[in-house]
Amino acid sequence: MSKDRLQRFLFDDTQVRGEIAQLETTYQDVLVRHDYPEPIQRLLGELLAACALLTATIKLHGTLSIELRGQGPLSLLMAESNPGIGEKSQRLRGIARYDDEALAALDDLSLVSLTGEGRVMITLEPHGGQRYQGIVALDKPTIAGCLEDYFERSEQLPTRLWLASDAQRAAGLLIQKLPQEANPKDPNAWERINHLADTITGAELTKLDAKSVLYRLFHEEQARLFEPAPVMFACTCSRERFGRALHQLGPEELRSVLAEQGQIETQCHFCNTFYVFTPADVEALIADPDASPPTVH
Ligand SMILES: [Zn+2]
Question: Which CATH architecture group holds 5-179+191-233?
Answer without folding.
Answer: 3-Layer(bab) Sandwich (3.55)
